[in-house]
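Friendly challenge for the regulars: who can give me the structure tokens for this chain first? No prize, just bragging rights.
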Amino acid sequence: MPETPATPAPTHRWWLLAVLALAQLMVILDGTIVNIALPDAQIELGMTDGDRTWVVTIYALAFGSLLLLGGRVADYWGRKRSFIVGMIGFAIASAIGGLAVNTEMLLAARALQGVFAALLAPAALAILTITFPGGKERIKAFAVFGAIGGGGAAVGLLLGGALAEFASWEWCLLVNVPIAIVAIIGALVFMTESRAHGNTKYDIPGTVLVVAGLASLVFGFSRAEEGWGRLDTIGLLALGVVLLAAFVLVESRVSNPLLPLRVIVNKVRGGAFLVSALTGSALLGGLLFLIFYFQIVLGYSPLLSGLASLPMTAVIMVTVGILSNVLPKIGVRLPMTVGPILAAAGLFYLSFITVEGNYLLEVLPGLVVLGIGLGAIFVPLQNVALAGVEDHDAGVASAAVTATQQIGGSIGTALFTALYTSAISSYLADNASSPTAQFGALVSGYSAAFVCAAALMLLAAPIAFFLIRPSKDDLLKGGTAVHMG
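First reply, four minutes later:
Bragging rights claimed.
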């Protein structure tokens, strides 16, 4: 029996979008807001540097490895139910983290956050997909949702900076509780239940393979920050590739696949997934090193660092507002080709930062160009990635989009960190006697990371140009098959 999800009344759709955007914001900002809290948390809980790294890694590990399973659970169990349970679980985990009295308690809380985020995130995107099945409203809804995804990281830096400066590090986690309460109330009022019908049996072999494979990849890339030649790094990455290859083989043969291959083999959606991964790697990696530059080299406070990042978010929002109105006329190919080029130019501009650090001349122009480029990508990206997906697969397809961003971020962070470390060593070898050698080495490392991020972002342009070519009509229809020409 085909799925016939109840669609909210038109007047309620935008309220529901606000609820979904709030959930998206909470999940996205949690990655950066916790980074702001880590220095104080490390001192108070007596964490080692390794423990501090695990606070970030364990969340990415749980979130990234369980996303596809979370998407299928949302499809079969019910998207509204999954959204609410995910939100409640995320809030409880955040409260546990905020009340942590030792390292173990904080790490357990972060793992739980990742588990429930893996259920919450694909449910939210799937609900958005079926609530706005087509037309110009779909474009605007996905534009808003995408802008939250792009700007949420910077918002997290600002909010985390304010909380760390005027309250305490615990509130960087506890702030999720009131946000979740508002979102849960909104879900109960505006959300209707929808679920997949027909074949709803879980693919146990596929689930085991993909969870283990994604976990190996995420963990492997996190270990790569300490050296790509390490035996555990190579072993984990190789194991992840083997397990995911076995997963694809299983999915091609079972009658109830966890991730139907029809979701990813479509040329347009496949291209969108690649662009999503490259954007995630460049954005997450680029922002991380920019904050390091603000705080360590320029001596900015956490709050001032967040404020210094805001122009990028503001430009993203303006670009989204403009582009969402003209996208039906110009189609997605142009912005998804030009966007990566502009984003790469902005990142490359940031590679010219200096120890003296003139924000208005060396940073702000790069942030503005980067924001325009990211806005051009975010408006059509998730719309294109989910175009033509059957309602039965909405949850798992949504999870695949988020998974590409998560894996891309892990790859980018590991790659940039390796280049950053290499650049520092090279600089110190040539300038050991310089009185500013320490800060000069750091800036050299940040510049190398920005150049690499720009190169990855630039790769997205030809992918978009040659693969992402749906017609304007297909874009407006949304839920129908995507034109391949």
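Residues 252 and 261 are 7 Å apart (CA to CA). Confidence is low (pLDDT under 50) at residues 1-5, 478-485. Your move, everyone else.
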